[in-house]
Design goal:
Elements (H helix, E strand, L loop, with lengths): L4 E5 L3 H11 L5 E5 L5 H8 L3 E5 L10 H13 L4 E7 L3 H9 L4 E5 L3 H15 L19 H13 L6 E4 L6 H11 L7 E5 L8 H6 E2 L11 E2 L1 H4 L4 E5 L6 H13 L1 E2 L8 E2 L3 E6 L3 H7 L4 H7 L2 E4 L10 H15 L6 E2 L1 H9 L5 H15 L4 E2 L21 H15 L4 H8 L3 H11 L2
Parallel strand pairs: 1-2, 1-3, 3-4, 4-5, 6-13, 6-14, 7-10, 10-13, 15-16
Antiparallel strand pairs: 8-9, 11-12
Helix pairs in contact: 2-3, 4-6, 13-15, 16-17, 17-18
């Protein structure tokens, strides 16, 4: 159903024509101007819900300053309108500046029709109050306003529609699975399955059966044919999380399947063609592992067509407050609390903490504060953030779980993340170690 009015400002008349035709089925009115001097009049007369604003016009210097000027004018004349910036890939830094000055979003040229329509529709709905709070669904990707993240977003939008294999790197808790969901959503395989596999949780003996499947009678408990994850994800996206934890011998079997684009079930002999888009993720330095001989270089080449790095939260502190508010709204609703807010001191404390567990740790801290709070304002004392995480002396530890968590964290640092060495030093199996790492959020 068509709703709302959009104003498009771009000096390229071919772009104006193409975008107008694209949006005529989405907006009630589509107004276009090639000369930015006409923007104020159109704002007053047409009262648009959304403005799609080009960052460069031929009448001015091509460094984005004119686009920023007109962004400021739009916010003065019609502050309730959502402004979406139209920019080239090389001008992502300008988009960052624009968002900090009040723009709602940006779209990179050359644009994808579906992405442009979705972005402008979301902006229209925000103006019309059809989405509460921050307007984002739980679990959706929050990009924030930093240059790092918006450059990453532009890259994702360029590569998502391809079938290129993607490797996502970043510390625990930075949102690698959420980013994978976003890539799948933007891909040509979005109507198919996204199947996540935690590689660290699969034992060596079950690896082939889990990924490639097995035939009846292949081993003692194989009572029937069973398809593996590659077959189940056919036509969709296969997400191999914690790929750095895969044993060296098993890496060769994965590589063979990727190279041949086919698998053979355990106990079978018939090759089965596979058609999946592969996304892998790790918090480990795979280049260093290759140099050390613990990760195959040929497999790294195969999974690393495009590498996307998620920065730690401490490198994007300006996003902490908005992320925290998103979690606050989510958990207040989940736990049937009235609308809640943060005291200024609480926001200052959150921005100052290092958040070594990144977004996941911030999320858990806000959830805990919501559960324990008796009022509607979260104070600084309600925020449980430990800036010395992993460094507390053993003689100050309060519980056995805390002692175990500290010991594992220290050993992981000493072994530089090599889980095989950590397990050996602690005298436990890799699987037991991995379960404890998950339990303590290390």
């Amino acid at each position: 159903m068509k709703k709302g009015t959009i104003l498009i400002a771009d000096d390229n008349r071919n772009v104006l024509t193409a975008v107008r035709m694209l949006l005529e089925d989405t907006f009630e009115r589509v107004v276009a101007v090639a000369n930015p001097e006409n923007i104020p009049a159109r704002l007053r007369d047409d009262k648009p819900d959304v403005v799609l604003l080009d960052m460069n016009f031929r009448s001015g210097v091509n460094n984005g300053n004119e686009g920023l000027f007109w962004l400021r004018q739009i916010k003065k004349v019609r502050p309730q309108a959502q402004v979406v910036l139209f920019t080239a890939y090389a001008d992502i830094e300008l988009a960052v500046t624009g968002i900090k000055e009040g723009a709602a979003d940006f779209v990179v040229k050359p644009f994808d029709n579906a992405k442009l329509t979705a972005t402008l529709t979301e902006a229209r709905d925000k103006t019309r109050g059809r989405r509460g709070g921050n307007g984002r669904a739980a679990g959706s990707m929050y990009w924030g306003t930093t240059l790092q993240m918006l450059s990453l977003r532009a890259m994702v939008e360029k590569v998502a529609a391809t079938d290129a294999n993607i490797l996502i790197t970043g510390e625990n808790g930075t949102g690698k699975e959420v980013l994978t969901n976003e890539i799948h959503r933007l891909s040509l395989r979005a109507d198919k399955m996204l199947l996540p596999i935690d590689m660290g949780a699969i034992t060596d003996t079950l690896f082939e059966s889990e990924l490639f499947g097995h035939v009846k009678g292949a081993f003692t408990d194989a009572h029937a044919d069973k398809p593996g994850k590659f077959e189940l994800a056919e036509g969709g996206t296969l997400f191999l999380d914690e790929i750095g934890n895969l044993g060296y011998a098993l890496q060769a079997k994965l590589l063979t399947a990727l190279q041949r684009r086919s698998i053979v079930r355990v106990g079978g002999s018939k090759p089965i063609p596979i058609d999946v888009r592969l996304v892998c993720a790790t918090n480990r330095d795979l280049d260093r592992m290759v140099a050390e001989g613990s990760f195959r270089e040929d497999l790294l080449f195969r999974i690393n067509t495009i590498c996307l790095h998620l920065p730690p939260l401490r490198q994007r502190r300006e996003d902490i407050t908005q992320l925290a508010r998103m979690f606050l709204d989510r958990y207040a609703a989940m736990y049937n609390k009235p609308p809640m807010s943060f005291a200024p001191a609480a926001e200052a404390k959150m921005k100052a903490l290092p958040w070594y567990g990144n977004i996941r740790e911030l999320q858990h801290a806000v959830e805990k504060a919501v559960i324990l709070s008796d009022g509607t304002t979260i104070t600084a004392d309600d925020i449980d953030g430990n800036p010395a995480r992993g460094e507390k002396p053993i003689d100050e530890v309060q519980t056995i779980d805390e002692m175990e968590s500290r010991l594992i964290a220290k050993t992981m640092r000493d072994c530089e993340g090599n889980l095989s060495q950590v397990a050996q030093r602690l005298g436990v199996s890799r699987q037991t170690l991995y379960n404890k790492i998950k339990k303590y959020g290390l």
